[in-house]
Amino acid sequence: MKTILNEQQLAIIIRRLSHQVLENNIDLDNTVFIGIQPRGIFVSDQMIQVIRQLVSPEKVQYGKLDITFYRDDVRNQIHVPNQTDIPFSIENKNVVLIDDVLYTGRTIRAAMDALLDFGRPAKVELCVLIDRRFSRQLPIQPDYTGRSIDSIVSQKVKVFWKERDGKEEVVLL
Amino acid sequence: MQLSVKHLLGIRDLSRQDIQIILDTATQFKEVLQRPIKKVPSLRDVTIVNLFFENSTRTRISFELAEKRLSADSINFTASASSVSKGETLLDTVNNILSMKVDMVVMRHSASGAPHFLAKHIPAAIVNAGDGINEHPTQGLLDAFSMREKLGRLEGLKVAIIGDIMHSRVAMSNIYLLKKMGAEVMVAGPPTLIPKYIQEAFDIRVEYNLKKALQWCDVANVLRIQLERQNQVLFSSLREYSLAYGINKQILDSLDKKIVIMHPGPINRGVELDSDAADSAQSIILNQVENGVAVRMAVLYLLSGGREMTN
């Protein structure tokens, strides 16, 4: 087990990602943030907290998206869904999708399909905490990356969160 | 997390956890149904046949809609317009349909146990949409879903099932489900319509007085008086039934609390339920119908995967 990010690094990266996303999307009337269930929302919750401190908090539109019903592996395993909560229109908005680990790209493919069922966004961007580069199975790349890492298939990236696991850390198993 | 069963034949075979998974999944499907595009691609490689050997409007439409919202291919079959009227057996009929590559079967049949029989002989997943006087599991699930949605819980809830308990598969599924989820159950109606040993068999209350039943419960699930059974002399006339067991605004207002009114439909207005009660703010009858689609989507979704489809 190897630590990729400790608690302090994680906090700094979340802060940086929040600033970067905001820098490119300063027009908050036309920007919405969507965290991907179940694990991406730990990243998005923290980012939204930072963003709400930087701009007028009531203008930040934030939703959660579950992609269970859009997965391409339903025939192998049935997953029980999580909550989807997008209480605003995404029509013609810039959507920033937020997830924790980008690996094969299949989750993001499903997320984009799910998103399009809510409307036609002007633009979709992807923000991830960890990018496992060179392991993509689909042509998907992030716009904002916390940390890029090289890993092999047999390895696993695990992100721990204080609220859930009692500690904040990213490790390579 | 997966269901412990391969078919939905009855609530009787489900565990408490199965019921919990189905209701939680249905909550998410209900959200899908509020979206601009009320459709997900989960079952786009699945073909489902709706076999209705008995008449149905609500249940069939609800299943059909659930299948379409899941992107499944569906075909409909009604017994009256088929080879069944030429004397084909149930198994032959179903095997013929399955040889055309069908993955799941939704079946309603007037014989209790018909889906259980099929489950033993065919490889496809079977969803019971009502069999004789045995069970109507998706109705039980959608009733529970609606109660949970309205009142926030099932545990400890007091539910009175009122009417023709003897011939009601809805009552059976409700009793099994509510008992498993920790609710208190009472059945109420004329003694001729309540099976004799039901109290001992299910550990539930029995009440013959409507007012007392309503006073006790949080939710009244009112069953349809099956007009076709009127000639069996189980009660003397519809008018008399209505006088003794009909629920109207007057009796609801005379209670010292607001109870929730449910009905699986179709309502005989003026018999078991008066319009002023059926259309009141206390009634969640139309919510039940709405929730039916989400619950059936959950059942079909959860039974569709995790194993090889017929091919």
From TrEMBL, chain A:
Phosphoribosyltransferase domain mapped to chain residues: 2-154
Domain of life: Bacteria
GO molecular function per UniProt: uracil phosphoribosyltransferase activity
Catalytic activity, EC: 2.4.2.9
Keywords from the named record: Glycosyltransferase, Transferase
EC category name: transferase
Gene3D superfamilies: 3.40.50.2020
InterPro entries: PRTase-like (IPR029057), PRTase_dom (IPR000836), PyrR_bifunctional (IPR050137)
Protein name (record): Bifunctional pyr operon transcriptional regulator/uracil phosphoribosyltransferase PyrR
Encoding gene, per UniProt annotation: pyrR
TrEMBL record, chain B:
Aspartate/ornithine carbamoyltransferase Asp/Orn-binding domain ranges (all copies): 155-303
Residues reported in the UniProt entry to bind L-aspartate: K86, R169, R224
Single GO MF annotation: aspartate carbamoyltransferase activity
Catalyzed reactions per annotation: carbamoyl phosphate + L-aspartate = N-carbamoyl-L-aspartate + phosphate + H(+)
EC number(s) reported in the record: 2.1.3.2
UniProt domain Aspartate/ornithine carbamoyltransferase carbamoyl-P binding: residue ranges: 6-149
Subunit structure: Heterododecamer (2C3:3R2) of six catalytic PyrB chains organized as two trimers (C3), and six regulatory PyrI chains organized as three dimers (R2).
Protein name: Aspartate carbamoyltransferase
The organism of origin for this protein: Niastella soli
Gene that produces this protein: pyrB
